[in-house]
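To fix ideas, we give here one paired sequence and structure record:
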Amino acid sequence: QVQLVESGGGLVQAGGSLRLSCAVSGSSFRINAIGWHRQAPGKQRELVAFITSDGSTNYADSVKGRFTISRDNAKNTVLLQMNSLKPNDTAVYFCYAVDLRAYWGQGTQVTVSS
């Protein structure tokens, strides 16, 4: 079992920055990939970014060049640095991890005002 706890969401003006953190606990040694999805009101959940066990990263086109995903292995944490935020980045952001199945955190709200 893997447990994921997100933090770092909040309210920010357009053009601002936020950093989301996902604390990983449990049987994390089998995780193949870990990252973030988001879900805006009335929309489907969509992939934002993920990082694999070998350090490869992947980003949605909508966030490339603005968001950066990284891992702090010493703290068992995955970070999502979000810069140049736009109002359409407003969503609940969910941390997820995959080994033999998918695990999800409870989500953290990010609101970007115009």
